[in-house]
Specification:
Blueprint lengths: L8 H6 L3 H39 L1
Amino acid sequence: MPLPKPANFKETMSRDSDLHRRKRRRNLALLAALVCLMGVFYLVTVVRIQAGLGAAG
């Protein structure tokens, strides 16, 4: 089902309102936080594997 076409150009510009900008900024900040958290988990996993291999050898 296609999206309805805006009646005029002003309607297309209203989609980029202050609320949308704030939500986009918040979503990008959450994405950055998730990527950092994934990096921390990855580093912790690598360190634990390295420590486990050193203790076993």
